[in-house]
Amino acid sequence: MKNYYINSLLHGGDYNPEQWLYDPCVLETDIEYFKKAHINEVTLGIFSWAMLEPEEEQYDFGWMETIINRLYENGISVILATPSGARPKWMSDKYPEVLRVDEKRNRFLYGMRHNHCYTSPVYREKTRKMNTELAKRFGNHPGVIAWHISNEYGGECHCPLCQEAFREWLKEKYQTIDRLNFAWATTFWSHRYNGFEQIESPSLCGEYGLHGLNLDWKRFVTDRTVDFVRHEVKAIRDAGSEKPTTINMMYDYKGLNYHKFKDVVDIISWDNYPQWHKKAEYLTAMDNGMQHDIMRSIKHQPYLLMESCPAATNWQPVSKLKKPGMLHLASLQAIAHGSDSVQYFQLRQSRGSSEKFHGAVIDHYGGSDTRVFDEVTRVGKSLEQLQEIVGTQVEAKVAVLFDWENRWAMEDAQGPRNKGLYYKETVEKSYYAFRKLGLDVDVIDMEQALESYSIVAIPMLYMFRDGFENKVRTFVENGGTVIMTYWSGIVDDTDLCYLGGTPHGLMDVFGIRSTEIDALYDWESNTSIPVKGNSLKMTSEWKCKNLCDLVKTTSAEVLAVYGEDFYAGMPTATKNRFGRGNAYYICADFEQGFYDEVIKKIVKDSKLFVPVKSIPNGVEVTTRSSSENKYVFIQNFNMHSVKMEIDTRNSQIILGNYKKSTIEGFDTIVLKLKR
Amino acid sequence: MKNYYINSLLHGGDYNPEQWLYDPCVLETDIEYFKKAHINEVTLGIFSWAMLEPEEEQYDFGWMETIINRLYENGISVILATPSGARPKWMSDKYPEVLRVDEKRNRFLYGMRHNHCYTSPVYREKTRKMNTELAKRFGNHPGVIAWHISNEYGGECHCPLCQEAFREWLKEKYQTIDRLNFAWATTFWSHRYNGFEQIESPSLCGEYGLHGLNLDWKRFVTDRTVDFVRHEVKAIRDAGSEKPTTINMMYDYKGLNYHKFKDVVDIISWDNYPQWHKKAEYLTAMDNGMQHDIMRSIKHQPYLLMESCPAATNWQPVSKLKKPGMLHLASLQAIAHGSDSVQYFQLRQSRGSSEKFHGAVIDHYGGSDTRVFDEVTRVGKSLEQLQEIVGTQVEAKVAVLFDWENRWAMEDAQGPRNKGLYYKETVEKSYYAFRKLGLDVDVIDMEQALESYSIVAIPMLYMFRDGFENKVRTFVENGGTVIMTYWSGIVDDTDLCYLGGTPHGLMDVFGIRSTEIDALYDWESNTSIPVKGNSLKMTSEWKCKNLCDLVKTTSAEVLAVYGEDFYAGMPTATKNRFGRGNAYYICADFEQGFYDEVIKKIVKDSKLFVPVKSIPNGVEVTTRSSSENKYVFIQNFNMHSVKMEIDTRNSQIILGNYKKSTIEGFDTIVLKLKR
Amino acid sequence: MKNYYINSLLHGGDYNPEQWLYDPCVLETDIEYFKKAHINEVTLGIFSWAMLEPEEEQYDFGWMETIINRLYENGISVILATPSGARPKWMSDKYPEVLRVDEKRNRFLYGMRHNHCYTSPVYREKTRKMNTELAKRFGNHPGVIAWHISNEYGGECHCPLCQEAFREWLKEKYQTIDRLNFAWATTFWSHRYNGFEQIESPSLCGEYGLHGLNLDWKRFVTDRTVDFVRHEVKAIRDAGSEKPTTINMMYDYKGLNYHKFKDVVDIISWDNYPQWHKKAEYLTAMDNGMQHDIMRSIKHQPYLLMESCPAATNWQPVSKLKKPGMLHLASLQAIAHGSDSVQYFQLRQSRGSSEKFHGAVIDHYGGSDTRVFDEVTRVGKSLEQLQEIVGTQVEAKVAVLFDWENRWAMEDAQGPRNKGLYYKETVEKSYYAFRKLGLDVDVIDMEQALESYSIVAIPMLYMFRDGFENKVRTFVENGGTVIMTYWSGIVDDTDLCYLGGTPHGLMDVFGIRSTEIDALYDWESNTSIPVKGNSLKMTSEWKCKNLCDLVKTTSAEVLAVYGEDFYAGMPTATKNRFGRGNAYYICADFEQGFYDEVIKKIVKDSKLFVPVKSIPNGVEVTTRSSSENKYVFIQNFNMHSVKMEIDTRNSQIILGNYKKSTIEGFDTIVLKLKR
């Protein structure tokens, strides 16, 4: 388990005692309450810059030292943050270059957070000094177990410094301006550049239609942010601290390709704020589960749930209370998917400013006799019961491909539907179909290896990067099963269309060619009708919407056909034997049931291990594995109890109640079995 | 009746004869028509600056003098406006500082109106000179009865001059930067200021999440505007005119706390443009009635209806004609609620520019043989019949609290629901419940005294200013009845959360503590079920939405409880005896019927005077009082006639038809009775 | 047929071979495919500036010469574009003045297209030089048949150069500032100008409520664009080329009054991208047909369909495939309405940038064995069959008035409904009613002559320009029939309201006066009830919405009356005999059926020639005429076949199938008959 550094399941979260220094009793009350709630960790120092360096180069670490020591004395460890997520006012006043510039080329005023220029030499130097000071003082403190670098990185800056850095980045990538002109198809609309110095970042008041430029800009923004993280980490390492690092990522954040961060941090962590009770809990859990799996798949290691809300948030349109039991259920879902922590934002609620009503373990009332405090304590106790799970892996044999850069390109492309491509939703359909069978799923991107999987779903992979088609070809040749959909293999990695037919490079693998794609209005649909005697034994009719691919088969078997419109009778799903594997192609945006049927039948053919035979509606089954044991989490996301047959002869229930074949509403059962 | 200066019911409105100077016949026709329509007043000079000072320091008052004289000779008095609502072009060209700067720090170009920097020394000096000249010439003219200062003040300016003034304002308020930092909770997100000079006004491209800053900025904007009004009035007084002053306020205008203007003007006036015929007239009348009562309650004196539309407006999305009788009904509603005038925008319609299609007494056709002219004439006649009412008061024994600063804070707070708090709608529910009983209602803010009332409703008073909790405590101790709701007493006057439990300072008065608040999605609801044998005799079930407070009682009686969700059985309404009074607490956002039931039963217990026993649906009953008489207005907002028993033995009908116990559709009856 | 220069029906479109110079095979393949598809024309050079002048004053025309020659050798002619629709980057970098400035006075960055300052001396000089070079080299090439000036002109610039030009334009128009002040009613809101130098263009951050200013600005923008076109054409003529010129106009483009371009170009052409299959095809065809007729009516000559999409676009929200037969049907609709070409954007699809997925004759796949290629070929064949039609006219005896400046004024006016005037939709109702009878219709503006028509519909002519009322009066006096509606004759040509009653100058002609106009909410309606024994024999009840005019009649006959509201019984439609003609007035926004009934009965009285007796639903009938023949196009816009009686005794079917009185779905029949 190299590169992984957390030794026990953590229970804790964001803590800002610098807001309460005026009343020393608060710290002591908090420590007492933390112990009561089985909290063993706090994340300290996020947004503390103004308290650590109140005036330029005048540092004050005393208050922090006191707090770290008091926590350590009480058995509570600290994940220490660098404070670069928000700047003090004096810095923006003295060095306006640290302020970000928007795409209209207007510099922001001081305010809010997460809005620094990552290129600015001043901001880099100030960050370096601060991190150095922090690391020198606390980087080897026994109470400090890890570094939390900055906070929720995001956004982009269009200042002259960033423009210059962008040009350098392009020069390195393309070497000559002719190669850039070809890659971006600049001859269109007379947009040819005579030199790199002519290039400017995309802007709604300038150029926003050159897709190659837009895409490279997004890549540059990710690279710039990675570079800034590297810069922050380097300062810590240079100052002699070797504790592991993490950055806290966000739910479905489109602005950064998180995969690119896998080598600059030691641990992946993320902030998880689902809107429970808005739709059926199970649907929220599925959606949320996929995000957990994305995070885990970045490094294929356990990760941390860095933030979650113990009560209701305050920034969602409607901030609903979690019903009794929901916090426990959601917290253990994270553990089930591979997290080694349950952490909250926030341990004590702020008195003022924009997050003062965000839920907390200790609220404004200030007592420990609250419903939320009891729910948190229950989570703490369960984590103690499950300590042996720390560091165990999730071993997925199936994967779904979900690629950031593909999404950027496809959503910018101006294609058949400019509102309503539903990329994420389409990925989820394959993911859900696998999860309903109790299969653990990796959610990977195009740069990751495929060979360890039996089945890989590749929905809407509009863009093929770096010869991805060859990866697929080899995977199928060697016996893998691939399920690809419409609108795949259309463009290369600078969004230049492939000539000669699509899906590019895979027409023989799938035995088809896509000839046209029809877009449907929101109120339209078509149907799929199974072909009699098809080899997958499809039997049901299904509805599709939005996009319908019109393919011609060469060697593929037609499994089902369209029922309507002028392309009635053309294929909706095909299967092609290629090498030792199978290549399935799905032609249209079908409803969930279609995916459920197709994937269930493909999985049946594949003889994959399934931990539980039959899973009732609303129940999620997930497995973590050590070298000796498997830990099967069975979570009932229904509010009511369900009947479910579990074979307990060779296993032990280490959490939860299972009596008379029944699991209570919102309950979690953890089964331990020898491998 | 000190501080009140109007001696007869006025009938008239905005008049811009400077637009017609090219044709002298127009003035003479207008005077003839005014007399025909029983118009006895015109408001002159609004937006006349370019005609009064066509070039810098070159004044031309001749045309105005002629007009005032001609009107005076014909018995028509003038309310004279200062022209500062719009500037001439030459001023903006020569002195760009008079142009406002928006929150993104961009200076506006010249155009439109109501967009001057109120700090600009140039604008203040130009205004001072203009007002001085006007006052010298017309300030003691016998035809001039009052001053109309500028027009519909509003908006804000973020120019460097205003930034500096804001910093001065903050320095005066907080004295030290530490106190400001504490009050605004600036430690959150590292936002601490090292000095007042670091502070900038809120901006969407800078700081907008620091609620204390946002709130103080709004207060500053009000104070700045008040200061500008004071400046305008001073010029008039310094030039020797002692006529009363007014500013025309607007319907539900959030930008300024109108209560703060009560000492700088002599008379309150406002502009009233309800959208009649959009929903049931009675609902519009209720909504509108509350605005009348807000205006009256600012000074607790008769006020003026400064603008209303004799026909259809032109700036509403759909500008509907008023149906026959509507103008008369709406005009007398103003009188019923305490207005001593019915004034129109506009007497003669402009030929061009953005309000050319706004309804007028005299339209582009130009004849007096129009339907609208007849409707106006009918109003004029009725006002003449009711002249004895001038100066009489509305004596309310119940009040509803509706506080501007509370609204600013609550809507900015980022709390349980960020779209859909429904503060105004919730206030209206209490207001409507009282009004349906025929009770006159004051609509007051937190700074006003409570002691003169029997019952005070305090809905959603999120913020307590200046120890407001003590005012409530004393009021109840002394025998008052208070009805407070959920989401009250949460923060102090800089939006800093109270610690130790809410409603702050009143947990013993209400005998409860609020523990959590649940937010409901728009499609969700809960119910209230009465507790058997409750002392208020509540018997009905009611639906609630949006927000549900979860309270624990200490000494309070539970009147009713939730029917659903995990908090079923917790209270929805409580009653606590405290001192000699009663404190009711309503836990959720209930439908109107709930308020109707609760308030009807509370009023029944209170033995308040009710002018009419039983009021049919759609009828509004309002009372004005002199030292000797009461004048009861009974207005039928239904298009059809209604049966209604009125005890006419000791009263006299001085307006309207009442035969066979019937009031006609859209008719108004005025009853005069000895006190 | 003076001023008209095209000698055969063209089939072709936009072609950008400069994007494929790296592969010379592409041109040869394209030529082969063009011939296969009966393509006889390409439009070359649109957006080629960066390839023609890669660096300042370094021209490269070699590639273009090769291409024109190769096409010519293969019998394919060229319409040659000036490249001013998009600039090279070097130009914007060196001369920022060529970049447009928006109404907030921010200069755009480089990017996209169609965004040059048309005043900039630099841009004019660069364009002059480029056009001169192009014309010298290719202006007399036998393969070049016409000039395509720039591309889809549009937009506006607020830079200092344009401000100055606007002031000059105003000075020329008004001569004195007093006349401008009067015309714009600047006394309102103190907006008087002391001199032309004080005037600035309208802006949302300055003046946007002065309707006269807004209107003159829009006129200026059109004039500026016309002037730029004139400048471009002059360069070509000065260089010795006399080939005809055109600019490609757009569907319902509000930004420019296209009628003003009629004298600066030789041929009208436009780009037509209907959203087929979104609603019933017939409705789309009607809408589209009106746009064709607008274009034809600008010069009353055949025009060109310069762009249309052979497959699906990529810029519509949903880019749907055309169903089989649709392309042929839509292409021939253009011919039927007066086009002498069917041209596409684009012949070969781009590989990259923002239009890479826009449908093309040759797509990324690159074969000629596609469904779209077959559809295009079918169009090519039909055009060859119809070659004798080239240059024939459409001779309309009825006209509908649709005026750009009227629309600008009315939509800016702030009147009875500020969202939902439905001008275009109201014009369409009259247009559709005529078209359903098979009558050809001119769609003209106020500046055009009326005398050649029998019936003229004038819906919602809010603004009368240049004594238009006299034109109407004379037309009716001389025996014409006019059908006018509510909200007509309200303002003069600077948006100044007429005094003394409306419709201005025509109250005697129509025998009515409009007294008030009621606006209805979206959910409201009223009805029309025919008067017994009315002379038009109206018999049906109809529903109206949005706007209801309340008119008083003097001499007019009331045909029908309102059924509801307080104006029940007032007229909804009137008829007045005036001179030798008839003047109908429609009072409210009625449903289509009302127009169908009224117009059918008026046409019946008029004895106009109707080419076909009875037209089934969904069929469009259109006629082109030469001096000897008439060509009647009968197009079935239903997907199913219809029965229809056509008298073929004196005619010949030159296209399409007509058997057993049946026309197939989506088919076109062309009938040739002697005059």
TrEMBL record, chains A, B, C:
<dbReference type="Pfam" id="PF08533">
    <property type="entry name" value="Glyco_hydro_42C"/>
</dbReference>
<feature type="binding site">
    <location>
        <position position="315"/>
    </location>
    <ligand>
        <name>substrate</name>
    </ligand>
</feature>
<dbReference type="Pfam" id="PF08532">
    <property type="entry name" value="Glyco_hydro_42M"/>
</dbReference>
<keyword id="KW-0326">Glycosidase</keyword>
<feature type="binding site">
    <location>
        <position position="113"/>
    </location>
    <ligand>
        <name>substrate</name>
    </ligand>
</feature>
<dbReference type="InterPro" id="IPR029062">
    <property type="entry name" value="Class_I_gatase-like"/>
</dbReference>
<feature type="binding site">
    <location>
        <position position="151"/>
    </location>
    <ligand>
        <name>substrate</name>
    </ligand>
</feature>
<feature type="domain" description="Beta-galactosidase C-terminal">
    <location>
        <begin position="618"/>
        <end position="672"/>
    </location>
</feature>
<dbReference type="Pfam" id="PF02449">
    <property type="entry name" value="Glyco_hydro_42"/>
</dbReference>
<dbReference type="InterPro" id="IPR013738">
    <property type="entry name" value="Beta_galactosidase_Trimer"/>
</dbReference>
<feature type="binding site">
    <location>
        <position position="159"/>
    </location>
    <ligand>
        <name>Zn(2+)</name>
    </ligand>
</feature>
<feature type="active site" description="Proton donor">
    <location>
        <position position="152"/>
    </location>
</feature>
<comment type="similarity">
    <text>Belongs to the glycosyl hydrolase 42 family.</text>
</comment>
<dbReference type="GO" id="GO:0009341">
    <property type="term" value="C:beta-galactosidase complex"/>
</dbReference>
<dbReference type="InterPro" id="IPR017853">
    <property type="entry name" value="GH"/>
</dbReference>
<feature type="binding site">
    <location>
        <position position="157"/>
    </location>
    <ligand>
        <name>Zn(2+)</name>
    </ligand>
</feature>
<protein>
    <recommendedName>
        <fullName>Beta-galactosidase</fullName>
        <ecNumber>3.2.1.23</ecNumber>
    </recommendedName>
</protein>
<feature type="binding site">
    <location>
        <position position="117"/>
    </location>
    <ligand>
        <name>Zn(2+)</name>
    </ligand>
</feature>
<dbReference type="InterPro" id="IPR013739">
    <property type="entry name" value="Beta_galactosidase_C"/>
</dbReference>
<feature type="domain" description="Glycoside hydrolase family 42 N-terminal">
    <location>
        <begin position="14"/>
        <end position="386"/>
    </location>
</feature>
<keyword id="KW-0378">Hydrolase</keyword>
<dbReference type="InterPro" id="IPR003476">
    <property type="entry name" value="Glyco_hydro_42"/>
</dbReference>
<feature type="active site" description="Nucleophile">
    <location>
        <position position="307"/>
    </location>
</feature>
<dbReference type="InterPro" id="IPR013780">
    <property type="entry name" value="Glyco_hydro_b"/>
</dbReference>
<dbReference type="InterPro" id="IPR013529">
    <property type="entry name" value="Glyco_hydro_42_N"/>
</dbReference>
<dbReference type="GO" id="GO:0004565">
    <property type="term" value="F:beta-galactosidase activity"/>
</dbReference>
<keyword id="KW-0479">Metal-binding</keyword>
<keyword id="KW-0862">Zinc</keyword>
<feature type="domain" description="Beta-galactosidase trimerisation">
    <location>
        <begin position="396"/>
        <end position="608"/>
    </location>
</feature>
<feature type="binding site">
    <location>
        <position position="162"/>
    </location>
    <ligand>
        <name>Zn(2+)</name>
    </ligand>
</feature>
<dbReference type="GO" id="GO:0006012">
    <property type="term" value="P:galactose metabolic process"/>
</dbReference>
<dbReference type="GO" id="GO:0046872">
    <property type="term" value="F:metal ion binding"/>
</dbReference>
